[in-house]
Amino acid sequence: MADVEISELTKVFPGDVRAVDALDLHIADGEFFALLGPSGCGKTTLLRTIAGLERPTSGSLAIAGRDVTALPAGDRGIAMVFQDYALYPHMTTIDNIAYPLKVRRIDRTTRHSAARAAGESLSLGELLDRRPGQLSGGQQQRVALARAIAAEPQVFLFDEPLSNLDARLRLEARTFLKRLQHELGITTVYVTHDQSEALALADRMAVMRDGRICQVGRPSEFFHRPASVFVAGFIGSTPMNLLEGVATGGHVTLGDVTLPAPAKSEPDDGEPVVYGIRPEYVRLQDNPSGPALEGTVQMIENLGTHQLVSIDVGDGTAPDGAAVGGAPRRDGVAAGRVTVRATVVDGSEPQIGARVHAVPEARRALLYRQSDGALCMSSVQPVGNA
Questions:
Q1: Same domain, yes or no, for 68 and 207?
Q2: Cα gap 67→65, rounded to integer Å
Q3: Rounded distance between C-alpha atoms, residue 326 and residue 129, angstroms
């Protein structure tokens, strides 16, 4: 059972730079687990620490129930695929694939047989005599994967392996990688800053910030029920509307508009809150039957089958100095200028300058406390350690 158990792991670099901060995490055997977050959040440092390329300042790390905290990388049973693939330019494809076996002093015949089998499994059979400079980016990526497979690891570690590919090839490689991992059943830890990759590939994922984990769960949980304002603003191909307001008697007051509070939310009466609603769950209506955010269409962005409509709904002033929509403040919460976004089916978008009513779907909305950015929902338990 090749699970990964991380306990109170901390990595501090010179200058008191705390890249990983007392982190706890369990990755199950055979799981495809993604680490996601902005640059500098600590995800690559965590991956390198699992690999044994960085020594933790404190804490422990176990793979398959064995404490590997002090073991060198070669004794951990892991294989790592780097962002730049790290292929040796003077070696042929088969020698690159076989190199980890050579380091382990496996004889040439055995290691070349294993390398050939791994290469052929990834459709590299006709390219085994070529050098990296004679291969395309997608072929080099497959060579790096074949090298990892030939090593027969307990855990795969991927450090943004698709970032050097063009958009179309990245999509194809993503599908291939997910199928390959499913077939091999090897525990996989995948670092990326691309949320679409994480959402598409992972069985579970974690969002990191400042060396700590903000939320752990299935991809669908991050989209439908992000646990904090930071995660809500980070996840989603279109930015979530995060509107500051005040909770009053089962409702939320946003400027001069009062909307029903989301079900199961439990803010205190008079508490400053952030009303979160994804553009996908905002409807544009000419004559709404209930409360709506009225404004002027300022911009329309083509998303292919849908259009993203940005609406200026007022001057941004809400009770007690709160703000609705607009320019990023902290954690992506809007302040100042009032902008609400909605997605509509291509061909049904209003004209720029038109007056429209934006109606959020109450059952899809979320409430967050302004004080700490946490979700106001009794059914959601704290996750991670941040």
A1: yes
A2: 7
A3: 57
First to last CA, the chain: 28
Which residues of the chain are under the pLDDT cut of 50?
316-330, 332-336, 378-386
**pLDDT tens for each residue of 66-104:** 999 999 998 899 999 888 888 999 999 999 999 989 888
Q: Which residues pair with 244 in a beta bridge?
A: 274
Decide: helix, strand or coil at residue 35. Answer: strand
Q: How far is CA 55 from the centre of its chain?
A: 25
Predicted local distance difference test score (pLDDT) of residue 209: 94
pLDDT of res. 323: 43
Among 226, 154, 224, 239, smallest CA distance to 188 is for: 154
For residue 376, being part of any structural domain is answered with no
Looking at the domain assignment, is residue 382 inside a domain?
no
The token pair that represents 14 in the structure block: 């010179």
Burial class (CB in 10 A: 0-12, 13-18, 19+), 161: buried
Averaged pLDDT score across all residues of the chain: 86
pTM given for the model:
0.84
Amino acid residing at 206 = A
What is the spatial distance between Cα 63 and Cα 188, in angstroms, rounded to a whole number?
12
Judged by DSSP in three states, 305 sits in: coil
Q: What is the DSSP string of 94-145?
A: HHHHHHHHHHTT--HHHHHHHHHHHHHHTT-GGGTT--GGGS-HHHHHHHHH
C-alpha radius of gyration, the chain, whole number: 24
Q: What is the pLDDT of residue 103?
A: 87
| CATH code for the domain of 148 | 3.40.50.300
DSSP state of 57: S
Query: Do 191 and 87 share a domain, yes or no?
Result: yes
| Count of domains observed in the chain | 2
3-state secondary structure of 30: coil
Facing residues of 200 across strands? none
* CB distance 282 to 340 below 8 Å: yes
Together in a domain, 151 and 247? no
Per the structure, the complete domain to which residue 244 belongs is given by 229-369
Residue 258 lies in a domain: yes
Distances (CA, A) of 88 to 80, 95, 143, 381: 15, 9, 11, 48
Residues 282, 170 share a domain? no
Query: Cβ(211)–Cβ(41) under 8 Å?
Result: yes
Parallel/antiparallel/unpaired status of strands 204-209 and 212-217: antiparallel
| 155 and 201 assigned to the same domain | yes
Q: Is there a domain that residue 102 lies in?
A: yes
Amino acid at 46: L
